[in-house]
Amino acid sequence: MRRALWIALLINAAMFGVEFAADWKAGSVSLLADAIDFLGDAANFGIALAMLGMLPVWRSRAAMLKGLSMAGFGIFVLRRAIWQASQGQPPEPFTMGAISLLALLANVSVAVLLYAFREGEANMRSVWLCTRNDALGNIAVLLAAAGVFGTGQGWPDLAVAVVMGGLALSAGSSIIRQARQELLTPVSA
């Protein structure tokens, strides 16, 4: 488990750098959202590593923090999409597509590493949900890039950003609920 988390952390940190740099060229809010999500996931993997071997109450508290950060990310993305809509400038679709394809390959690799932990306690489940959401987000950014290319307008990028924000809010809420339940239910160490 520890090795898988370290690999996932390194992949996510590297992809944050790649996507953040690519967003400067593309001007895509969905690509920026995905880049920030990679950064959040790298931090979540670091927290998950720190929590290995800790008492269940500490792992549940860490999961609560991760759930709150995921929900916060969702709110940030939704606000950024509203701001971008007011600007009216469509993003550059070729960079969006190429980088989101690379990100999808990275996330599928991480998902394969973490598949066994998808039904675990809240701390490890949150790691799985982050990775699943990232892969879904990458597919959505690919579709947005095709939509921007086909229409010459920015609304496909904005629509995907709203979906990504919604996924983050939904997953964050799910993790918060599970962590709260774990904190309320006494478990022996």
From TrEMBL:
Please give the Gene3D superfamilies that the UniProt record associates with this protein. Answer: Cation efflux protein transmembrane domain
Membrane-crossing residues?
31-52, 64-82, 94-115, 135-152, 158-176
UniProt keyword Protein biosynthesis, yes or no: no
Q: Cytoplasm: present as a keyword of the record?
A: no
Q: What is its main location?
A: membrane
Subcellular location, record wording: Membrane
Q: Which UniProt keywords apply?
A: Ion transport, Membrane, Transmembrane, Transmembrane helix, Transport, Zinc, Zinc transport
- What region holds the Cation efflux protein transmembrane domain? 5-52, 62-184
Membrane-related topology note:
Multi-pass membrane protein
Q: Name one Pfam family in it.
A: Cation_efflux
The record's annotation in PANTHER family points to: CATION EFFLUX PROTEIN/ ZINC TRANSPORTER, RE54080P-RELATED
Task: Name it.
Answer: Cation diffusion facilitator family transporter
Q: Which organism is it from?
A: Viridibacterium curvum
